[in-house]
Amino acid sequence: MLKIPFPYNRLMGTSLVVKMLSFCDNIIHNSVHTCLRKKQSTMKKLLSLFVIILLPMGLVAQKAHNFKLKNLNNQTVSYVELKGNKLTVMDFWATWCKPCVKSIPKFIEMNDEFESEGVQFLGISIDGPRNLSKVKPFAKSLGINYPILLDMDNNVMTRFRVQAVPTLLIINSDDKIVLFHEGYKPGEEKLIRKEILKLLEK
Amino acid sequence: MKVSFLFCLAIFWIADCSDIHAQIYGSNTFEFQYGNLPFEEDTDLTTSYDLLNLYYDQGNISAYGRFEQFLTPHESRNYFKLTQKRLQYEDDHFEVKVGNFYKTIGRGLLLRSYEIPGSVYEDNFYRTRYAFNRDQEGISLGYSSDHIEIVALHAKPLFNPLPPNFEPDSLRRPDLVEAIEASIILTKDLTVGGAYMRSSSDTDANSYREFGSFILNANLPFQLQLYSEYAFETDVSLFGFNPEDSYALYTGLNYYYGSFGLSAEYKNYNSFKIGSGFNDPPSLIKEHTYPVLNRSTHVLNTSNETGFQVEAFYHFEGGHSLTANVTAARNEVFNVNHYREYFVEGLYQYNEFLSVKSFIDYAIDELKQEDNRWSLGLITEKSFNHEWSLTADLQYQTYKQTSFAQQSENYYGAISFSMFPSLTISAIAEASTDLLLTDNPRTFEVEENTRSWFGGNIRYKINYTHTLDIFAGQRRGGPACTSGICYEILDFEGVEIRFSTRF
Asked: Smallest CA–CA separation between A116 and chain B, in Å?
């Protein structure tokens, strides 16, 4: 039997639609380039080819890496110490983010509901030095009862490929990111709750 | 270019040879623009920008590369570059980073790095688009245990006003920084620390400026928390605060009780712009996301500025909240300038389907010559069966421009329709009577007619890895602050398409 080596085997588990979208992204990009550029060196062509090959290659769930951050009491803690037995729900937020203020009370309710079932919520504040002093009083006055970590340099945020706040990630017990939800509108917590229940059933 | 190619090959080869526990992942942002800058109606400009982040993880080792590509019909502005690369080792106690990394010392008084994920900056002078960040390039070593944390670095911070295609490339990193920061965890409630840093610039590589800092972080009784940092150039008298000295003092105290929270901060900075400006002490200015207030922000002057900021929050049962902020700053470079701002914001959650948010803000900004600046806003969000929602956002601002002896007004209105969880359609209208905006700089006459901007956005989240954003119309530029970082956005008129991918 033909055994497809890593990382090409990643292609096999992804939907055709998603693969095509990634290819389209590159095709548009490269088409525009073709129109705009009169000259292109061989090296650039080769690198563009790499982009095309690499983009759809890894279209599977990213595995969460371990990381260390300070908590609200200035103690350094790691993801491994805090993660849930079954699921970890990671909410990236900031004190200046208006939708975050609306979503956090819903996550506090969900944390209370699912904590005993092995689900751990983690809040990751992306506030920089300008707003860092506000994070603790803001979080405490809001009644957040799950751990809050401070990602001042956005190192964790960028490595999880988070581009906006709020963004919510659900990570399963194999450390695979199984849900990536960007933004928040009232009512979306019902979708997230449904997803948690579905994942707990698995 | 050879380096880029070899880096790609290396990642590809490592991935190919490694076991199944390794992973490659990343993100890609492609942005296409067709349009004009205002007052340049006949210069249709087509640009294409692509940003690719690639990560490779295996055990404790990870590698990272960032490629950026920008293309226009103007060959001289085009580039394709490996703009960041990093090799990193991390275990329970040690961390080694070689290449481009982000490290802030303390609260940024001595050294601050940042990245605004997803942001694409357009440079006004070179008209080049690139990712907006300030990283360091070099080596960083870290050690941490239960009682001590140490980081040492030897790196060149990025001078980000220059685009990636700027030649010579060395001018983009004109400073060399060597620093060591240590924190001693005395008890679980008390940490003391300090840093030593020396920096030199390419123009005079043998001449160093030396700095030190003391840091105190304490959890106090009665749910109080104190953070204090004092940074100074080593040839000054400690805590002398003399006008000729280079120093920066920042202190933040916060408190909470039940649903009430309070943050009080104080700053005193003097002659503390280091090198090309790679430090960034906290500005102690409220960060607003409301458009009329966001672009009215006060930009810190590290040459000389003192001030404070106090912010209080109260979160009521049922999701209601109240926030109040008072800010004051005084700086003196050639003249004495004051900045004062009073802000109150309320969120009222009528029921789970309807919420109303409003704010009122009063400010005086002598540096920008804006007197009696009043800003008001009302934002209503109505959800229909948690399947779709409608948001109406109305904002107004008025101030007296002392230089023109004229009252200026800004209007902002937006209506947004969202279908959960994938589609959002918004229409935005803005208008201004500010002479600095209404006047066409290319004509002799001073145009005073109200200037307006109309635009529309569509955001479609195809799935959790792909998002499509389309903007069409006119976009008002000006100063903007995101994640505490302030920069200038250019006006734009045309069509913009952005496609974001995670993989």
From this structure: 24
Chain A residue with the nearest C-alpha to that of B185? A75
Instruction: For B424-453, write each residue's pLDDT tens digit.
Output: 999 999 999 988 888 877 777 777 789 999
Please give the residue range of the domain that contains residue B170. 91-282
| pLDDT tens figures, B325-365 | 999 999 987 889 999 999 999 999 998 889 999 999 999 99
- Does B46 share its domain with B119? no
pLDDT digits (tens, 9 = 90+) for B369-407: 889 999 999 999 999 888 889 999 999 999 998 877 789
Q: Is the pLDDT of residue B39 over 80?
A: no
Q: In this predicted structure, what is the pLDDT of residue B243?
A: 86
Is A132's CB within 8 Å of B282's CB? Answer: yes
Same domain, B156 and B78: no
Domain that holds residue A86: 68-201
Do A81 and A153 belong together in one domain? Answer: yes
* Mean pLDDT value of segment B417-430: 93
A 110-149 residues with CB below 8 A of B? Answer: 126-134, 136-138, 140-143
Question: Do B386 and A129 make contact, defined as CB atoms within 8 angstroms?
Answer: no
What's A46's DSSP letter?
Answer: H
Are the CB atoms for A112 and B235 separated by under 8 Å? no
Q: Provide the number of CB pairs (under 8 Å) joining chain A to chain B.
A: 260
Q: Which of B50, B72, B87 is the last residue of a domain?
A: B87
CA A6, A12, A14, A19 torsion: positive or negative?
positive
Tell how strand A87-93 and strand A119-125 pair up.
parallel
Task: With respect to residue A74, please indicate whether it lies within any of the assigned structural domains.
Answer: yes
The answer to whether residues B180 and B74 belong to one domain is no
| Residue B78 contacts A, CB cutoff 8 Å | yes
pLDDT at residue B204, as a whole number:
73
Q: Give the list of residues 6+ apart from residue B261 with CB closer than 8 angstroms, or none.
A: A134, A136, A137, A138, A140, A141, A142, B254, B255, B312, B313, B314
If you average pLDDT over residues B120-133, what whole number do you get?
Answer: 85
Burial class of B2 by CB neighbour count within 10 A (0 to 12, 13 to 18, 19+): exposed
The mean pLDDT of chain B is 90
The CATH number covering residue B262 comes to 2.40.160
For B464, which residue in chain A has the nearest alpha carbon? A180
| Residue B73 falls inside a structural domain | yes
